[in-house]
Amino acid sequence: MHSILVAPSILACDFGRLHSEVDRAQDAGADWLHMDIMDGHFVDNISFGPAFVDAAAQVAKVPLDTHLMVTRPDHYFPRFIQNSRNITIHVEADCDVLATLKAIRQAGISCGLSLRPKTPFESMLPFLPYIDLLLVMTVEPGFGGQPFLTAMLEKVRSAQKARQDQGLDYRIQVDGGVTLQTGALCVESGADTLVAGTSVFRAPDMKSAISQLRNLPRF
Ligand code: DX5
Ligand code: ZN
Fold it and tell me: What percent of the chain is modeled with pLDDT above 90?
């Protein structure tokens, strides 16, 4: 069983103080830092690109987990390889998904695959043997600070069941609206990797927010 990891989402930090925000999150016990890349096409927002990730990497001591919400991850992923420990792409992307997952692994890092709330879990099935992480979006991707979609817990359970039935080993990550309350439901359902933006960066005590998430009771 994978240990629970907490990955604060940099999207929720104060961009004007990037280095000190990265330090604040890692000093508070962040396991990974989650980097949300949005191209203004795959989602209705533009976040930041490789230069910003390079800037974060200058001070990051923990692995960077890069989530590509872009239409052409096959074209852009090489620009994030150097600073990422994991790169996650979307099953809805306009590219050869399997070839892109394989190319990410070939570059020496782990690969993840995600799906939007409206995409059925079955669309992930052909790719499960080729991924290191399965990311269930628990909000519509594009913006931080949205309410958690409880109906997505069914996908977390499907991901857990498929992993067990097929003898696979991918991490199950959730992203969007994760708080102590909704995180508990995710962990109960089988999630082991929790992305949290607002609830961690805006917490009165970030260290306690992270450690409480990490210590939620397992399913
Ligand atoms: C949403 C992003 C998330 C976002 C989560 O498109 O993928 O990573 O930053 O932020 P919160 O935790 O505030 O919902
Ligand atoms: Zn994300």
Answer: 99
Ligand 1, atom 9: nearest CA belongs to which residue? Answer: 144
Ligand 1 binding pocket mutation candidate from 178, 195, 201, 206 (most atoms within 8 A of CB): 195
Q: What domains sit in the chain, N to C, each tagged with a CATH number?
A: 5-214 (3.20.20.70)
Per-residue pLDDT at 219 exceeds 80: no
Mean pLDDT for the chain overall = 98
Give the total residue count for the chain.
219
Contact 7, 38 (CB under 8 A): no
The number of the ligand 1 atom at minimal distance from the alpha carbon of 178 is 12
Cα(48) to centroid of ligand 1, in Å?
Answer: 14
